Amino acid sequence: MSLPKRAAGITLAATLTLPVAASTLDLRGSSQAEATTTVAAVERAPAPSPRANRAAARAALSERTIKVASRYKGVPYRFGGTTPRGFDCSGYTRFVFAKLHKKLPRTSQQQFNAAHRVKHPRVGDLLFYHSGSRNGPVYHVVIYAGHSRVWHAPNPGTRVKRGKIYAQHWTAGRF
């Protein structure tokens, strides 16, 4: 017997040697009544754990969120804007998440109130900027892109862009 081998999700658990009739194998010129052949016993590799499945799904969602957010780079800021003709900050986040089949409330404060707070943001989470302190009202929302970068519709006269986290007081939220 040999050690188990893994290939493409299948484990070869053992290698067996079995006797086989010579007539079945067509051993030309062989005078043996029996020969041997090798057969591998095959068993399925264990399925990934539910935790691994959730982590993979979350990573895929994060990647899709940033991909969708980046599509709207250059769209002009428009106060109250909710379409690619013009976005304000919460209109932008709401539009991006709608493309991912997630419904968000309209304003940044309402989005903050509805979000699940998290201590450490992951790519695709929302960051809510607060006035004065972490307990102050929310005045801006952005999509976290990793490495202290965000996607957002900054303010009048600008366009949707990827930039650095610029606020001192923010809270991360997840949908």
Model description:
The radius of gyration is 29 Å and the shape is globular. It is 25% helix and 34% strand. The chain is an alpha+beta fold.
Number of helices: 4
Which regions are unreliable across 5 or more consecutive residues at pLDDT < 50?
A: 1-18
Strand content: 25-35%
Main β-sheet, spatial strand arrangement: 6-11-7-8-9-10
What composes the largest sheet? 6 strands, antiparallel
Succession of helices and strands: EEHEHEEHHEEEEEE
Query: Structural class, please?
Result: alpha+beta
The outline comes out as globular
Mean pLDDT: 84
Q: What is the radius of gyration computed over CA atoms, rounded to a whole number of angstroms?
A: 29 Å
Q: State the share of residues found in helices, binned by percent.
A: 25-40%
Q: What is the β-strand count?
A: 11
Could you give the distance between the termini? 52 Å
Question: Which characteristics define this entry?
Answer:
alpha+beta, three-stranded antiparallel β-sheet, disordered N terminus, 175 residues
Short description:
By secondary structure, the protein is of the alpha+beta class. Helix content is 25%, strand content 34%. The strands form three sheets. Strands 6-11-7-8-9-10 form a six-stranded antiparallel beta sheet.
